[in-house]
UniProtKB/TrEMBL annotation:
Tagged with keyword Signal: yes
Region (Disordered): 367-391
Record keyword Signal present: yes
Keyword tags: Signal
Protein name, per record: DUF2066 domain-containing protein
Highest taxon in the source lineage: Bacteria
Segment forming the signal sequence: 1-24
Species: Arenimonas donghaensis DSM 18148 = HO3-R19
Amino acid sequence: MRPRLHIRLFVVLLALAAAPWVAAQSPAPVAAAESGEPGLVAEADTPRDMALYTGESELLSQDAGERRAATARALAQVLVKLTGEPLASANPVVRRALPKAASFVMQEQTADSVSDQQGNTAIGGAPVYKTTLRVQFDPNKVDALIVGAGLPYWGPDRPSPILWLAIDDGRGARLVNAGQINVVKPLASRGTERGLSFGLPTGSAVEQAAVDTLWARNPGPIQALTERYGHQTQLLGRLYREGQGWTADWVLSSGGSELSRWSFSDPSPQRALASGADGAADAIARRDATRAAVGEPGVHVVRISGLRLADDFTRAMGYLQTLPVVRELTVLEATPDSLQLRLDLAVGLSSFDGFLAAGDVLEAQAPAATASPDPAGLSGEPTEARYRLRP
């Protein structure tokens, strides 16, 4: 039987401190947060963690072009959260989607604060105002984009690591506790961008006495302290001056198993701290993210029916041209109520159908498996896939 604890324990979710103007949400139950079970892309009716589908970007001006660019940056941030891939925006399918990021938007809002990108509240005595665009994207469309791009999907069941951080600024190593949230705000903010929240220890006498063990980055003895908070995953870090800058050394472990070790040096202590969130997100995503099969890219002949008005033809063609998985589109035949097209797709037809299902313009009339791909675009008569324009 676990001995009764006489030390009052208190965990602070740092993500709440990182985004004070976002409505606070109760942390997920520990059992769910620590499950570590890999997740597949959610079904359309599965409840989503909308925080993972929400991105933020600074608006550098009120110009319409800058707003489009900020929306694209916010979508890129969401894709990093949901895939665990820092370079998700470099994916060819994603690159085609980003200029059309507005078509993924569910809602957006702006918020003003007195601070610039470096956190300065005034320059030359004048206040510095920053406007942040906060965008919530359609989960079905984003999930379809992830599948269509062949990227991994990192589900919402994520651990919230307990952060054991010791800082030595030349006066000896000291444990950062829950009363010093502002000290680790760079890590918390970066964690929010990567879809991770962290907890801080209370800094009890027992925990303070473990600073030397923490400084040695020995996760074994610290694991028992982490489990007092009902968690299995822990991030141990030490931050110290080195030369003209700062170095942060990290080790991430879960349930006694080490997941990753890394170090990062930078003139800025804030950037050195933020590296803890990046390394933790990278390691957990490598363990938990799953990659869906997207099928074989190729050229397919499709027919779209239900085109009764001239505007219907424009609507169908315009929609297909916005889909990032459509590399090329050629009209083969037009009848009074249908279009026959040759589509060069970056994915198989089943994944293409998933893209359509996430929208409200076209729907498949026959199973995608009945249509044969023509990867080289050279065969005479590939089987025709059939779709219908939705009212």
